[in-house]
């Protein structure tokens, strides 16, 4: 029981990170119908920006840890968002009218460019970060096993919940969100109502990249080790989460992220840690066989 | 005779060797309903696509005499045709945002005004009162048009779940929510029963009277065209074959020929 509870906490933390990245995949897919394969790399860039900002703030500027964390949050969000914006502007917008395969290939290209750029600029070796804050609260102590919720896990969950709430509010309640949903359904019609579609698409990439940046910061602080390659597997998993939840559906992306996190945590705990990725993707296949549109996706009914 | 609202001059739109619209010139005046009629394939929808920026005509000029100065429509980007020139359009096959509520469909049409008021959502994020005010105005305007088209009771329904006739009226309301000076309607009466089509006539006459805007109408339903149009342009194979008041058009031999076909020479002889 204690073991189960601990894995639940670990799984939810991991799932929150996947979920934030998955939102970026699902948003871009919703608006453009395109899988942004560079999104995982953007998340990796976010992790590096966080690492650099945090170290610079604490060692060079000598700020206190909480202030450094706030600085890191804004830097990770802002600078990663800027990366997202540039990638869209340089690699996708010129291909808007091209066949669907072209931006897909362009995305893979961007992802390789960014990975190699970071590997060259920062070095290919893994970068460690000493734990920022240790400790947490003990939830349960049965003598031989202690269930604890670390401060870091709390920060991750609180931040994710906060971002999700803000994000849901933007999508459902603001003019920007309405425009985004309109573009999702009929881009040409949206533009005929005076909506600047290019700007909506840019904003989508900016928001998605900003969320990925925060996820990158979380993973840096949580695991304390990053390298230029972390974007690949995390990207694939977040993409899987988006598909599992139903690509195009925002609550679906979050749900999918949490599920993937939980599956990984529980499989590692009760079966074998080596096979955790095999398990994750097998469950994905099983879900898609029975629900091709994902858990919360809308079936695409074609009118005849 | 007042100055024209829309001036179409020598517009030609070619697809390969096919002249969909061929050297077409006509004008539409404000506070009038101008109908464009013609057999299938006469180039009516192509003309609409040129006016609303879907196509750029190879030859010719389309001028909109906006209250703030004339604008050349073929030089504007697609979304600025609505934003700057105030041209709104409805479609033959309805293009509502089916998965949004009826009210949201009308609010999203007021995006330009809302974005300006919200400083691109930043003010909205900060909860500034100016944005709340603009939002309230948008809802009010949406409610006004819901009332006009008789859909108030459906405000919170999904647009895609409405019956066909209601969807048509909602699309017109949405176009009006953009605050247009020229409203282009592509076969608004298609698929409507006689009662709905009579309601549509009343709605369009109402829009013309109350908003003082120009209406451009493509229509096959002659009961609609003859009853409400002030001016009719007849197209056949991309060319204008007649133009004038409804009574004159009804009696025009060229129009009758285009619609009924040429009498067989041998039989006639």
UniProtKB/TrEMBL annotation, chain A:
Keywords annotated in UniProt: Amino-acid transport, Cell inner membrane, Cell membrane, Membrane, Transmembrane, Transmembrane helix, Transport
GO molecular function, one term: L-valine transmembrane transporter activity
One Pfam family recorded for the sequence: BPD_transp_2
InterPro entries: ABC_transp_permease, BCAA_transport_permease
Single Gene Ontology BP annotation: L-alanine transport
A single Gene Ontology CC term: plasma membrane
Family, per entry: Belongs to the binding-protein-dependent transport system permease family. LivHM subfamily.
Name of the protein in question: Branched chain amino acid ABC transporter permease
Species the sequence originates in: Paramagnetospirillum caucaseum
From TrEMBL, chain B:
GO cellular component: plasma membrane
Keywords for the protein's UniProt record, in alphabetical order: Amino-acid transport, ATP-binding, Nucleotide-binding, Transport
Domain ABC transporter per the UniProt entry, residue ranges: 6-262
Coiled-coil zones: none
GO biological process: D-alanine transmembrane transport; L-alanine transport; L-isoleucine import across plasma membrane; L-valine import across plasma membrane
Molecular functions (GO terms): ATP binding; ATP hydrolysis activity; L-isoleucine transmembrane transporter activity; L-phenylalanine transmembrane transporter activity; L-valine transmembrane transporter activity
Pfam family, one: BCA_ABC_TP_C
InterPro entries: AAA+_ATPase (IPR003593), ABC_AA/LPS_Transport (IPR051120), ABC_transporter-like_ATP-bd (IPR003439), BCA_ABC_TP_C (IPR032823), P-loop_NTPase (IPR027417)
Similarity comment text for this entry: Belongs to the ABC transporter superfamily.
Protein name: ABC-type branched-chain amino acid transport system, ATPase component protein
Species: Paramagnetospirillum caucaseum
Lineage summary: Bacteria, Pseudomonadati, Pseudomonadota, Alphaproteobacteria, Rhodospirillales
